[in-house]
Amino acid sequence: MESLNKEIVLKRIIKETSDIYSFVFDKPKDYSWLPGQHTVFKFKELRIPLAEDEKEHRIFSIASVKEEDEFMFSTRVVDDCTNFKKNLLKLEPGDTMLIDKAMGKFLLEDLNKPTVLIAGGIGVTPMRAFLKDIQLNKKEVNHIKLLYSDDRNEFAYEKELLQIGEEVKGVEVLLISNRDQFNKEIDEFANEYSNNGNYYISGSPGMNKMFTEKLMSMGIEKQNIKTDSFQGY
User: pTM of the predicted model, to two decimals?
Assistant: First the structure.
């Protein structure tokens, strides 16, 4: 399939935590996406050559929704990161990247069912899109509970997520740094709603596997569990 190669123009870079950065672009014209989807990002020009075994593109979840009139993704950039990510930090306002068509089936489908959003670290990015969509489009929900875990007590989008939890009826937001509490909250939701609820998990492949197995051991059917994996932390 031929790449779309849609051009996007950088507006600003936001440092969300000690190692999570958001890259905010102008909203591209004639481009559509749904909350929870992702796309392929490529550079038009590289300031730092990529390593020989490094791909020229990366896939990131789209953290913004169309009503914001901005196009944003976030990623973790650590000291020993890839040259691709080093190039991200070299971007300046006005610089451009290329994106492909939006894709992915990690979509929030039934707002009438109680839903828990289980996010670890940078896995919160599609969850932000879910909640911004509900907030900005004034959607009615039954009960949506975001459980966002970070062992270091550093949370991307912290202020706006808490604001959504306070202002939007039916939405509850918990930012959790204690693993025991995180597991307890998941257990309580599963025990209360069982297969009458939906379960969305977004984190590393290992985290997704662990919590999928945990929920299934509690009797949650696999059809009620959706996962979205984040690699290359």
Answer: 0.95
